UniProtKB/TrEMBL annotation, chain A:
Organism: Drosophila mojavensis (Fruit fly)
Name assigned to this protein: Large ribosomal subunit protein bL17m
Keywords assigned: Ribonucleoprotein, Ribosomal protein
Gene behind this protein: Dmoj\GI12794
GO biological process: translation
MF term (GO), any: structural constituent of ribosome
Gene3D superfamilies named among the record's database cross-references: Ribosomal protein L17
Similarity comment text for this entry: Belongs to the bacterial ribosomal protein bL17 family.
TrEMBL record, chain B:
Compartments where located: Mitochondrion
Top-level taxon: Eukaryota
GO biological process: translation
Name this protein carries in UniProt: Large ribosomal subunit protein bL19m
Taxonomic lineage from the root: Eukaryota, Metazoa, Ecdysozoa, Arthropoda, Hexapoda
Coiled-coil annotated residue ranges, if any: none
A cellular component annotation (GO) from this entry: mitochondrial large ribosomal subunit
Main location: mitochondrion
GO molecular function, one term: structural constituent of ribosome
Matches recorded under InterPro entries: Ribosomal_bL19, Ribosomal_bL19_sf, Translation_prot_SH3-like_sf
Keywords associated with the record: Mitochondrion, Ribonucleoprotein, Ribosomal protein, Transit peptide
Automatic annotation (TrEMBL), chain C:
Taxonomy, superkingdom: Eukaryota
Keyword Transit peptide appears in the UniProt entry: yes
Chief place of localization: mitochondrion
Family under the similarity heading: Belongs to the universal ribosomal protein uL14 family.
Pfam family, one: Ribosomal_L14
Name by which UniProt lists this protein: Large ribosomal subunit protein uL14m
PANTHER family: 39S RIBOSOMAL PROTEIN L14, MITOCHONDRIAL, LARGE RIBOSOMAL SUBUNIT PROTEIN UL14M
Compartment list: Mitochondrion
Biological processes annotated in GO: translation
Entry annotated with the keyword Transit peptide: yes
UniProt entry keywords in alphabetical sequence: Mitochondrion, Ribonucleoprotein, Ribosomal protein, Transit peptide
Name of the gene encoding the protein in the UniProt record: Dmoj\GI15919
GO terms for MF: structural constituent of ribosome
Length: 215, 301, 171
């Protein structure tokens, strides 16, 4: 290979592509390898999330991505694409899913159509690396931990501090209020006109304080 | 100080209002994750306007596309090569041609009598990319088959003429070496056959006649379209072994195709870079040709 | 042995030569078209080494007869240090039971850029002084030969440029 093949035109993949393929050891050679990958791609389209060995998942991922991108690019009226879908999806009802569900789902997407995660492996057991392969926008709960709730995250630290400050302020206000009331009790006749605005601001602050934790 | 803290509290509270705040937990919350997915699908900012590159450019200028082999890619080298190629194209007219076209190449040759040599022949193969792009011409002169390899961007090439612009049924015509000599015999003083402007490049569906075995390659294994009498010379054992080496699954092997091509987005980028230059060169060439045809006096009576 | 050899046929270019020991009735049947389809044991090797078969392209009597009989000359020595004949090299050939010298004027092997590559390994017979046996070469010869043969003439003392004089055409 020293000249790009110009007879075919393909969209760029949004995933990292290895420079060479993995052979996925198979007694039937390249044909058997493709059959293996066809099974994986079919399962991926069917279940939308599968757990399997890393190498096989990584190989199948590219094929699944290209199948979807070809389906988006040519639509279901294109004969060659239909043949491709027919070859890659062993269960034929999934061809409908590809063109009617997945194509509309990913039409306006500008990220990859699939995601892959490393999965823990059993011990003791096979030493092969495992992974989880899923289609984006699947109905299952997400696998990634939500780091936004980590207390060491900067915004969480700030938020905590702000909350503490607010509480301190509120206590100080309460203390002030109590002090003022005791003063008022002693000198009620002189301080009555000045009391009204103070109470207003205090009520506002207390409202905010109530709202914030609720939200 | 108090006011500042109050404002901050308010704004932060508003910002995270849609989330239930669980301060010291690292467990995934379903709402947060659900909110995260559509965020990624945001459309990026306004698209940059680029010149529209004709779709046929990848056939006309295949050597501008780099080698898809990842280990050999180098963005800087490719860019510099493209600049050099354009520079060369400003100096000399390198016309559009395909495998199967008949070319005449004039190159300077220190050994020749007039210091130039001209070779006419059919292009049987095109290979390599960038500045190393080259092609093979074949002709039969005095009943002697001769092949010459030329580099397209060789500075010693003085002129490349396309005498007949056409394609053949196959991507490379090495089988002409095993065909009867009349199929690769072309007259050296052949006149250029101009093609109508804007007309598609014709495909010559001539089927060549091979001579009997032994051949240089096992043509029966290569699914050639441009060979007429391959069945005549092969036996059952050849047919069987040819069947054995067929790879019908390769047309479904999407990743193999992907690794052998340059993706469309990348092609657009490359051709957008060189398009304006190539286009102006094309226009200039057309103008020159018209001028030349206008000046040429007609032979009357 | 003969049967083993029979499996490998060749085309005219690297044309075949059979020794008398191996030739039999079945072999003559295969070489029905003289000079086009004959026996060959090393089809992939296009280099001119010892025992490589060549094609005489001049009109010398000896060469014409050898080619017409379908018994083209064999290279039995290459006069350079590498043992592989390149264009313009002098070789010793066995032709019709005689030893003759010749100059390679066209090769099937891969050539440099812009230099022609021929469909057959062409040879012009010369005598010891470098003057050709024939009076005309009936195929084109590469222009590089001009420079190469001139250089060799200076180096060796024999006048090889007479080969250039009988060339009909350069490519």
């Amino acid at each position: 290979m020293n000249q790009a093949d110009v007879s075919k035109l393909m969209s760029q993949l949004r995933i990292a592509v290895r420079p060479t393929k993995r052979n996925l050891k198979n007694p039937d050679g390249p044909e058997g390898r493709l059959l293996k990958l066809r099974k994986t791609v079919t399962a991926l389209v069917k279940h939308e999330r599968i757990e399997l060995y890393y190498n096989r998942a990584d190989e199948a991922r590219g094929y699944a991505e290209l199948l979807i991108s070809n389906a988006i690019r040519h639509g279901d009226r294109h004969k060659a694409t239909m043949e491709l879908a027919d070859y890659w999806l062993l269960e034929k009802q999934l061809v409908h899913k590809l063109f009617k569900v997945l194509v509309p789902r990913y039409e306006n997407s500008n990220v990859s159509y699939t995601r892959m995660f490393k999965a823990p492996r059993d011990y003791p057991g096979m030493y092969y690396r495992k992974s989880v392969l899923e289609l984006r926008g699947n109905p299952y709960p997400v696998l990634t931990p939500d780091n936004s709730q980590n207390r060491n995250l900067l915004h969480n630290v700030l938020l905590d501090e702000a909350r503490k400050e607010f509480r301190r302020e509120k206590l100080a206000n309460l203390a002030n209020k109590l002090a003022a009331e005791t003063e008022n009790a002693t000198a009620s006749t002189t301080a009555t006109p000045a009391q009204a605005p103070v109470t207003e601001t205090q009520t506002e602050q207390s409202k905010q304080a109530e709202e914030a934790p609720k939200a | 100080m108090n006011i500042n803290v109050r404002i901050l509290t308010k704004s932060v509270a508003q910002q995270y209002a849609f989330k239930r705040i669980v301060t010291f937990s690292t467990k995934p919350t379903q709402q947060a994750a659900a909110a995260a997915v559509p965020q990624q699908q945001e459309v990026t900012g306004p698209t940059v306007r680029k010149p529209i590159v004709p779709a046929h450019y990848r056939f006309v200028y295949p050597e501008f596309l780099p080698d898809p082999k990842v280990e050999w890619r180098n963005a800087v080298r490719e860019k510099l090569e493209r600049l050099d190629m354009i520079d060369r194209r400003r100096q000399i007219e390198l016309p559009e041609f395909y495998v199967g076209s008949i070319l005449a190449v004039t190159s300077s040759d220190p050994h020749a009598a007039g210091k130039t040599s001209r070779f006419v022949g059919i292009c049987i193969h095109r290979e390599r990319c960038g500045l190393r792009a080259r092609f093979i011409l074949r002709n039969v002169i005095d009943h002697q088959g001769i092949e010459v390899v030329y580099e397209l961007y060789d500075p010693t090439i003085q002129k490349v003429e396309v005498l007949r612009l056409e394609k053949r049924l196959d991507d490379s015509l090495f089988y002409l070496r095993d065909a009867l000599p009349e199929f690769s015999t072309f007259d050296e003083n052949m006149e250029a056959e101009p093609l109508e402007e804007g007309a598609p490049v014709p495909i010559n569906d001539i089927k060549v006649v091979l001579r009997p075995r032994p051949w240089l390659e096992r043509w029966e294994r290569q699914n050639l379209l441009g060979v007429a009498n391959i069945e005549q010379y092969i036996k059952d054992k050849h047919r069987k072994s040819a069947e054995k080496v067929q790879k019908p699954w390769e047309k479904y092997d999407l990743m193999k195709q992907y690794r052998a091509t340059i993706p469309e987005e990348e092609q657009k980028e490359i051709f957008a870079e060189v398009h304006t230059e190539l286009h102006t060169l094309e226009l200039q060439r057309k103008r020159n040709k018209r001028k030349r045809t206008f000046v040429k006096p007609k032979h009357l009576a | 042995m003969a049967q083993l050899l029979l499996r490998n046929f060749t085309r005219a270019g690297n044309a075949a030569l059979l020794t008398k020991g191996t030739s039999s009735s079945s072999i003559t049947a295969t070489s029905a078209e003289p000079g086009s389809c004959q026996l060959h044991t090393t089809p992939a090797c296009c280099e001119i080494r010892k025992l490589a078969r060549l094609r005489v392209v001049d009109n010398s009597d000896l060469g014409k007869r050898a080619m017409a009989e379908g018994r083209p000359p064999r290279c039995i020595h290459v006069y350079n240090k590498r043992g592989v004949g390149l264009i313009g090299d002098k070789v010793l050939v066995a032709i019709k039971g005689q030893m003759k010298k010749g100059i390679l004027v066209g090769l099937k092997q891969k050539q440099r850029i812009k230099q022609p590559q021929f469909d057959s390994n062409n040879l012009v017979l010369i005598d010891d002084n470098g003057s050709p046996l024939g009076t005309r070469i009936h195929v084109p010869i590469p222009t590089v030969l001009r420079t190469i043969l001139k250089e060799k003439t200076l180096a060796k003392g024999a006048d090889y440029t007479k080969v250039l004089a009988i060339a009909s055409r350069y490519v």
